Amino acid sequence: MLTEAEHGAKGNYVESKITPDAEPFWIALKDRVVKEKVPMRPSVVCRLLRENYDIHISDSAMTRYLKLLIHND
């Protein structure tokens, strides 16, 4: 924990919030964005995660994450 306090959170914030229950949905979503180039609406993704898996991620964090997925491909 001390290392994390010194250097910030390890890994990606959005991915760290994904639970094992939500993982199949998350993997499919990432595949659609990266491989099939399907644009996703960050606010809808956040709502689906919140309603179906009780995962709370801000729209702005999801927007940044999805943009990075597209640009890092």
Task: Please report which band the strand proportion falls in: under 5%, 5-15%, 15-25%, 25-35%, 35-45% or over 45%.
Answer: under 5%
Task: Return the string of H and E elements.
Answer: HHHHH
Distance N to C terminus: 32 Å
Number of strands: 0
Number of structural units classed as domains: 1
Rg to the nearest angstrom? 13 Å
Structural shape: globular
Q: Low-confidence parts lasting 5 or more residues at pLDDT below 50? A: none
Counting helices, strands and paired strands, the structural category is: mainly alpha
Provide mean pLDDT, rounded: 89
Helix content: 55-70%
Number of helices: 5
- Main sheet attributes: strand count, strand direction, barrel closure: none
Set out the fold topology.
Elements (H helix, E strand, L loop, with lengths): L1 H6 L5 H5 L5 H12 L7 H12 L5 H13 L2
Helix pairs in contact: 4-5
Structural notes for this entry:
With 73 residues, the chain is mainly α. The protein has one domain. The protein is built from 5 helices and no strands. The protein has helices at residues 2-7, 13-17, 23-34, 42-53, 59-71. The protein is globular, with a radius of gyration of 13 Å. It starts with a helix and ends with a helix. 5% of the residues are buried.
